[in-house]
Amino acid sequence: ETGVTQTPRHLVMGMTNKKSLKCEQHLGHNAMYWYKQSAKKPLELMFVYNFKEQTENNSVPSRFSPECPNSSHLFLHLHTLQPEDSALYLCASSRSGAETQYFGPGTRLLVL
Amino acid sequence: GENVEQHPSTLSVQEGDSAVIKCTYSDSASNYFPWYKQELGKRPQLIIDIRSNVGEKKDQRIAVTLNKTAKHFSLHITETQPEDSAVYFCAASENAGGYQKVTFGIGTKLQVIP
Fold it and tell me: How large is the C-alpha radius of gyration of chain B?
């Protein structure tokens, strides 16, 4: 349960604020992922980092800016968000050569 | 890109009955199919998975079947219990060179009635 951690767990922000979400994995994995989970929609892959290099960007608006300083840490910087960006943001990690992704507990984001 | 369809979106069963959730995928490059369970307010957790070279896998009360030709796979839960109540997600995954490209289904909310 503590292999992938995320902070904060809950966040309320105004549309003009700037905030950052943090994800940390203690599993020795090389790949890290950001997903957005909205009601009545599938989990949407946002970004993938593999060995600190961004390998996937699923047409995510520039108001979401990821950062991966090393294989254990992943950030999602948020600025000038819209109310429709309110969702659960999940981080996950996986190991090269293995298929299973392990999820963090998520950050519940509310944009007012 | 990959497209995963999942149904039903909601499912209610009596305790002790079986539950079946079905998914289809579109990309023949997908070769790994995990199922995740997400309880309210918690993270998705892997409950069972199957690889494309296997047709069926069982783990106690949970089983998954895969038909590669038809591109569909199913989750079967037998002797359901109230603690099985959760949202279940299927996914189709492809190894993209050191990481996974995963496409999820929309989820099935399972309610087990005591």
Answer: 14
The strand pairing partners of A22, in sequence order, are A7, A75
What is the phi/psi pair of residue B18, to 5°? -95, 155
Residue A92 burial (C-beta neighbours within 10 Å; 0-12, 13-18, 19+): buried
Q: Are B88 and B107 in contact (CB under 8 A)?
A: yes
Would you state the pLDDT for residue B28?
Answer: 93
Extract the tokens encoding B27.
């990309």
Measured between beta carbons, which residues in chain A are less than 8 angstroms from residue B101?
A: 45, 48, 56
How far, in whole angstroms, is CA A48 from its chain's centroid? 9
Q: If you compute the radius of gyration of chain A from its CA atoms, what whole number of angstroms results?
A: 13
- Taking any CB pair shorter than 8 Å as contact, residues of chain B touching chain A are 4, 32, 34, 36, 42-46, 49, 51, 89, 93, 95-107
pLDDT tens per residue, range B83-95 = 999 999 999 999 8
Q: What is the mean pLDDT of chain A?
A: 92
Q: What is the pLDDT of residues B19-51, one digit of tens each?
A: 999 999 999 999 999 999 999 989 999 999 999
